[in-house]
Amino acid sequence: xxxxxxxPLTPAGRLFLQPEMNxxxxxxxxxxxxxxxxxxxxQIQNSVMLQHPxxxxxxxxxHRGVEHWRPIKIDLDRHIFIxxxxxxxxxxxxxxxxxxxxxxxxxxxxxxxDKPLWEMHILRAHKCIIFRIHHSLGDGISLMSxxxxxxxxxxxxxxxxxxxxxxxxxxxxxxNLWSILIALYFSFIYVIQFILRxxxxxxxxxxxxxxxxxxxxxxxxxxxxxxxxxxxxxxxxVPNATINDVLFAVISSGISRxxxxxxxxxxxxxxxLTGLAMVNLRKQPGLQNEHYxxxxxxxxxxxxxxxxxxxxxxxxxxxxxxxxxxxxxPLEYLKRAKVMIDRKKRSLxxxxxxxxxxxxxxxxxxxxxxxxxxxxxxxxxxxxSNVVGxxxxxxxxxxxxxxLRANNSALPHALVLNMVSYAGKADMQVxxxxxxxxxxxxxxxxxxxxLLEMKEQVTTKI
Length: 462
Known about the structure:
The chain is an alpha+beta fold. The chain has helices at about 10-15, 35-45, 95-110, 140-150, 175-200, 230-235, 245-260, 290-300, 330-345, 350-365, 365-380, 440-460, and strands at about 5-10, 25-30, 55-60, 65-70, 80-85, 120-125, 130-135, 150-155, 220-225, 270-280, 315-320, 380-390, 395, 400-410, 415-420, 425-435.
């Protein structure tokens, strides 16, 4: 029975509760000092998170099976788990132990539906906190907003963290008839490709291909770490390139390197592999300053409309092409990535994919929508997301943060890449189905080496 204070789930929230799309976001926070559990509980109790209705509501279904959020009283002891040495490999270094624990969470651990859909795991021996929220509560941008609201700058403890955004004031983006026609042309082409990809077109099978049922396979996680200075050096070598262009070039080159090792004679040059990228559709893609952060969180508390909080992202299909790494100019990967991503940006692909998904949810229901989403995952090769974090060092509860990382529950892809930048570096979690990609550490090194090779190529030419 529906209560007076119950609120319906958004269409995206209902989608992420379907068995095929049941997704949990993991935010991994490394800390410099030992973790004081009582201090953490006090911090959470006084945080804006517990003022947000999504974190203090139970998901319930009415007599028609329609999902609603129902406010309840929070018992923190049911949400905070203290993980001692017997639960984590004590004989391993912090990096390996955290990755091993995260790998198990990605496939084996679901959130209990008899409490609000979030929890926190504290790995005391490894000075690490893993914050888990169900994707029906919000996306990565929403989670980053919530996390930073509880943090302070390390060098200025009274100030909230900030995120600098790229300047998009580009004269080439002025809307005239020609640019509108180009946008419509690319939008038409990409939407047709999107529909065909859902229906039957799929990538050629390679050593990194997943597929139906792979989301249930055991996982392994490794981390590729990049210097943002190196990424900026490479970016400046190609006019108007962006960090995202560099990231995608690194992924293209790294995957080619890995396939050279796994399939030395089996792939024809130019074979296409397709990535699925999550694109934030909010007008404000991040937290620019303290005033905006306060305003953002105020709106989060007042509104459940999903205008800012929630799931507001579209999808890009991003093709990469295999090239033998010993026969390609490293910067060619960046040039190709920039051309392709520029075309995607000029189109309405991300917005139309969001609108189409919303329409399917509203007319045919979440089961059919989740089936379509699952099919497009099965017909592509990997997932990529990139969340911008603060570039200055920050602390939470007086404890300096050493790294910020993110990943999510297993998908039908055998390769899932999630990057978060923080304090001059970017950590990309390389999550794999270990029976398909048994050596994620080597794959992570392929990505790191790809960036270093591009950087060396640039500095040699200067």
